[in-house]
Amino acid sequence: MADALVGFRPTIWSKNFIVNMDKALVYKNVVNTDYEGDIAGGARTVKINELGDVTIKTYSEGTDIDIQNLTDAQKELVIDQKKYFAFAIDDVLKAQSNVTLMEKAMQKASFNMADVIDQYIAGLYSEAGVATSGMGTSSSALDIYATSASVDNILSLLTNAHRYLDEANAPSSGRWAVVPPWLHQYMKQAQIIDNVAGGMKGGDTTAFGNGYIGNTLGFDLFSSNNVSNVAGASYKVMFGVPDAISFAGQITQIETQRVEKQFGDMVKGLYVYGAKVVRPDHLLTSYLDPTGLTTA
């Protein structure tokens, strides 16, 4: 039997798969990935150790102080998502093609895997723990285009998000938001982002990752088609800081073989991952409706 994909090196193909996938991910740019190394050995749960609060007490001269035993607020990040791809290319098609079909197919597999992962992380919106007001609810989304003062409405949305995160004692550095493309469009039209005066036009933004659209009012903003929504309405736009959500994932196996009873090569790969809102007090969700938006 002929060898499948002569020169195939799983380590190299796995590395290229991860690189291409990371380029396509948006939500992974705003989460904590510190624990990815912990699953390299095949672990299916990651222990995230956190300390409880330290109590401040009043000191009185001549009296003993109380020694507080720190409590362990350990959480588990469960690697419970398992996704795979498997495809074959016929020898005849491969011989007649002028492009490297297998490489192109692997790029598509990487992109589609990233799309599935982004949707999974975006679906964690319901675990946000920061209380909000005036930013819509799951039963009544906020139509920020409902009045002529819609520019003020979007600015109010951003400043309200800042206020609520401030009141929750969330760190001020690294704050982010992921918005749907229709909201990005309006921000550009209103010159809230991407305007020369704000210093958003031009420059190298690759360090921020895929989907980065600029920084305004202290938020690193990203745009994604995967913002959770219901039939094009009630978009769940998350605001947070990097420690709010933890993510870990790895490709556990990638291999090739000849297709039985056919003349062709098959490649298959398995990717496992998990994500968890570990600091709900550093994450908030607004519910937005684009009903009043016009593109004229």
Question: How many H/I helical runs?
Answer: 5
Please compute the radius of gyration using only Cα atoms. 24 Å
Average of the residue pLDDT scores? 81
What is the domain total for the residues? 2
Give an account of the 3D structure:
The protein contains five helices and ten strands, in the order H-E-E-E-H-H-H-E-H-E-E-E-E-E-E. With 296 residues, the protein is of the alpha+beta class. The protein has two domains: 10-55 and 69-123 and 246-277, no CATH class; 131-244 and 281-288. A five-stranded mixed β-sheet has the order 5-6-4-7-10. A hairpin with a 5-residue loop joins strand 8 (245-258) and strand 9. It starts with 9 loop residues before the first helix and ends in an 8-residue tail after the last strand.
